[in-house]
Amino acid sequence: MTGAAGVVAGVVSGVTAAGEAVAVPPRRTGAERIGATARTGGRHVARRELRGMWVATVANLDWPSAPGLTAAAQRAELIAYLDEAVARRLNTVILQVRPTADALWPSPYEPWAQYLTGVQGKDPGWDPLGTAVSEAHRRGLELHAWFNPYRVANHTDPSRLVATHPARRHPDWVLPYGGKLYYNPGIPEVRRFVQDAMLDAVRRYDIDAVHWDDYFYPYPVAGQLFDDDATYAKYGAAFPDKAAWRRDNTDKLVRETAERIKKIKKNVQFGISPFGVWRNAATDPLGSDTRAGVQTYDDLYADTRGWVRKGWIDYICPQIYWNIGFAAADYAKLLPWWSETVRGTGVDLFVGEALYKAGDPAQPAAWQDPAELSRHLAFAAGYDQVRGHVYFSGKNVVTDRIGAMDRVVGDHYRNRARPPR
Predict the structure, then answer these.
(1) I need a labelling partner for 14 at 20 to 30 A (CA). Which of 84, 125, 214, 420 fits?
(2) 297 secondary structure, DSSP code
(3) Do you find a cis peptide bond into 393, omega within 30 degrees of 0?
(4) Residue 65 Cα distances to 101, 107, 147, 330, angstroms
(5) Who's near 99: CB < 8 A, 6+ residues apart?
(6) For 300-335, what is each residue's pLDDT tens digit?
């Protein structure tokens, strides 16, 4: 997601899409649903909905503001984000705790993240995840622990990793691609290891959810090859082609993780926040009326629609990071498509919102209007399957460059609400 924040703005292409009609539920007026409240005993009680923000740690994008701060300063900055969530009447913080095959807790599997001290593997002198969980719950917030399964480093030099790093102990697990290092998803031992590393946090902390972003197989990089031919030759004989084998690898990771979470703690949710387009309708009649240059099914080998329809996950939070009316990927077309995708599955639909685009001069004119995001929530209010929204990212919630978040809160979050459960 943190990388996708830069990627999604440029992944639409000019291919003509053959759109299909999508059944949508009856619309209800904003007065009936926006910031919806139920009359109970003469008082207004907000409907259950998730109101969240992502707090990214990779490359110190949101928090900590810089590597090497004192433990007290790091803690103070983290608490400030939790307090900001309360002030904005949000109810969920999605904190990135495994940004690059490392950890923001004392993990027996992986080293301390370098984004804390500036040195990978160095103990920061406190437990960020443990503190985040206890302090979030003290404020009535849910804490979703956000993990990236396969990214190892934002460079391709294994010697820069701490000597005890699993990627150095198992160099055969790692592939360079697009200027980064990744664990190879096709190796069964890799899939088991990354699950073990993530599930350690589920066992040790009272987190409310395990959360993944949009990175599975890496986003395509022109002219570069993700060289897993040898792995495919070893493990892929039962599949018609490499794409089907790769999708099965990702499916296994999702299904197995879901099963293991529930065996450890049944009440812990499992949610995924994928890139907003599963497939274009021109590629697949079941796809959305879009012309996206990236399709998760074909390019990331992530069958996001399939995971929902099979009920493997508790919630899906597609990153619908485009404005209403954007020709190649229209928010007003993608949201109804996702609404229909989750219908009848028991999987909650939360919508990932591109707050970071509001007021960015590089973005289309719609994003220069502080009311664009508020219009997203007004539109979503007509679709009963939508159970909330999540904003990327924490720093943008705080700075609120043109007042777009203020507008959302004023228009839609006048009352506090509890997350759906």
Answers:
(1) 214
(2) I
(3) yes
(4) 20, 23, 19, 33
(5) 2, 56, 57, 58, 113, 115, 148, 151
(6) 999 999 999 999 999 999 999 999 999 999 999 999
Do 342 and 308 contact (CB within 8 A), yes or no?
yes
- Please list the residues that pair with 389 across neighbouring strands: 51, 351
Amino acid at 36: A
Which two tokens mark 296? Answer: 């998760």
pLDDT tens per residue across span 16-42: 222 323 232 333 323 333 333 333 333
Query: Alpha-carbon distance 337 to 351, whole Å?
Result: 12
Q: Which helix (H) or strand (E) holds 72?
A: helix 71-87
Closest CA to 101 of 87, 115, 89, 91: 115
Residue 414: both structure tokens together: 């006048």
Report the amino acid identity of residue 96: Q
pLDDT digits (tens, 9 = 90+) for 349-377: 999 999 999 999 999 999 999 999 999 99
For tokens 């059944």, what's the residue?
A: 23
Report pLDDT digits (tens) over 128-185: 999 999 999 999 999 999 999 999 999 999 999 999 999 999 999 999 999 999 999 9
Contact assessment for residue 273 and residue 389, using Cβ atoms and an 8 Å cutoff: no
* Cα-Cα-Cα-Cα dihedral sign, residues 315, 303, 54, 323: negative
44: pLDDT confidence band, cut at 50, 70 and 90? Answer: very low
Query: What's CA 12's distance to the chain center, in Å?
Result: 20
State which H helix or E strand residue 146 sits in: strand 142-147
Closest by alpha carbon to 350, among 377, 323, 312, 322? Answer: 377
In the numeric block, the tokens 């309708």 are attached to: 281
β-sheet bridge partners, residue 319: 275, 352
Cis peptide before 64 (omega within 30 of 0): yes
Q: What is the DSSP letter of 356?
A: G
Q: Tell me the CA distances in angstroms from 398 to 133, 327, 371, 393, one per residue in order.
A: 20, 30, 17, 9
Sequential DSSP letters for 252-267: HHHHHHHHHHHHH-TT
Instruction: Give the Cα separation of 42 and 3 in Å (integer).
Output: 47
Note the pLDDT tens digit of each residue in 280-295: 999 999 999 999 999 9
- Residue pointed to by tokens 């018609």: 240
Is residue 52 a contact partner of residue 388, using CB atoms and an 8 Å limit?
yes
Q: Write down all domains in the chain, each with its CATH number in brackets.
A: 4-412 (3.20.20.80)
Q: How far apart are CA 260 and CA 254, in angstroms?
A: 10
Q: What is the DSSP letter of 406?
A: H
